[in-house]
Amino acid sequence: MTDSGQMIYLDYAASTPVDAWVVEAMTALMTADGNYSNPSSTHAAGRRSVEYIAHAAGQLASLLHTTEDTLVWTSGATESDNLAVLGAAHYRQERGQHLISMRTEHKAVTDPFSELEKRGFEVTWLDPNANGLLDIETLRAALREDTQLVSIMHVNNETGVIQDIQSIGELCRGNGTLFHVDAAQSCGKLPIDLAALPVDLMSVTAHKMYGPKGIGALYIADRKGVHVEPLMFGGGQQRKLRPGTLPAQQIVGFGAAAAIAQSRINDDVGHLTALRDRMWAGIRDIPGVTVNGDIGSAFPGILNVSVEDIEGESLLLALEPLCVATGSACNSKSQEPSYVLRALGRSDALAQSAIRFSFGRPTTAADVDVAIDLYRNGVDKLRRLAPGRAA
Amino acid sequence: MSPDPYSAKVRALFAAPEHGGALENALCTAVEDQGVRISLFATVEEGIVTGLRFRAWGCPHVIAAAEAFCAESEGCAASELLEFSVSGLMQSLTVPVEKSGRILVLEDAVRSLGSIVRGASKH
What we know:
The complex is a heterodimer of chains A (391) and B (123). Chain A is of the alpha/beta class. Chain A has 11 helices and 12 strands. In chain A, the strands form 3 sheets. Chain A has a 7-stranded mixed sheet, with helices on both faces. Chain A has a 3-stranded antiparallel sheet with strand order 9-10-12. In chain A, helix 2 (44-64) packs parallel to helix 7, helix 3 runs parallel beside helix 4 (107-118) and helix 7 (248-283) packs across helix 11 (365-385). A 3-stranded antiparallel sheet of chain B has the order 1-2-3, covered by helices on one side. Chain B contains 4 helices and 3 strands, in the order αβββααα. Helices cover 41% and strands 22% of the residues of chain B. In chain B, helix 1 packs across helix 2 (60-73). With 123 residues, chain B is α+β, with helices and mostly antiparallel strands. Chain B has helices at residues 8-15, 60-73, 87-92, 100-122; strands spanning 27-33, 36-45, 48-57. The A-B interface holds A 309, 311, 313-314, 317-318, 332-333, 335, 382, 384-390 and B 2, 6, 11, 14, 17, 20-21, 30-32, 37-39, 55-60, 63, 98.
């Protein structure tokens, strides 16, 4: 704990607090005096729930510059990714079974692709450059006539690197290949214009943009040949693509979070940029410290740094009461170095020392200053404790 | 769910390792294995360990175990170093079983130190 006994949360890439206005909007659909009815019911209360859901869909659609009917509600980005990857691959398997993704994708994408490999599909795994970006020529060389799906994330969850989804999408479209984007880290944080971007499928989630956990969406472009096969059956909701009773309060929360994000997205980016730059300026002179990714073209809410000759787990404990991540939250229990950083060419030791600082709306400059002090002191302490290498 | 991976004792020892560092004119050893590096320094007078220090590169359990060993072993007979086992520390620090290999590096280092001390006493 700090002198004031408070935790400092710098793990907003893992999850964000729910905005107070979002909580209020959700609560109105949960209590006895609210509108808690099943939106599949045909009575007046059910129809009222449908109206709430339609309004929320409009809010999310507005944020993404698309139309409500292109959105399918899911339980979150992991389900959206699975529905997109498995659903699109199976829908188009008669045309071909070649798929492309990157080694630095989130497990929610790499695992469905690995599953498809087991089912007989062929997957080409692309390596990033040392800065984490995909070289468009690497993708061009990998595309084939029978390539049915390319999945590349917008903002990397570990490094914050932003992929050029405009260029990637144009290349895919020219090849007749569907393009899926995991936008879990960018939706509501960076401007996304689906009316202009050549993207066919996009996964988004609420809980990384100050909405509730348990709700996400998959964008499915209203374009010929763009479709997914469902993963679940029963009930027929959402055009049978994702059946099940719609959680109206979650959806309304997502919609409210989208509306808030849209109203302040540029201010948020400015705030995060100032915090990220302050953090890096405070630690960049530490010998052996290096940024994982490309700070010049990364999402400013994430700063991932490694430092030479420091054991990552000890550094993480030395940083308490900071709440930060060593890798993606889904991977953080593993002792293994981050596969994302290994794909960037980092050594095991350097990857293992990586700390991801991620900033959010509530983060203050004072929080960052404490983080700088803790990081500097932690590195200094562990270096003083460390022996030289045995001969 | 992520329960706290560290016991209160590990947290305390890691936070304030009073025996971290080196001793001048001390007998010393260095062991590197399992991704862990440990150096131990000891001063011995008339067969008694009068001072112990450590340097360690490893996870918090390794650092806590090294600190606990030094704190508990100052004043012991030097001959005991040769018989040192980490089993007691594993238990008292609640070290997870998957980290046994790393903590055993400390056992190797202590026994190596014991051998050096015995060799020095023969001269």
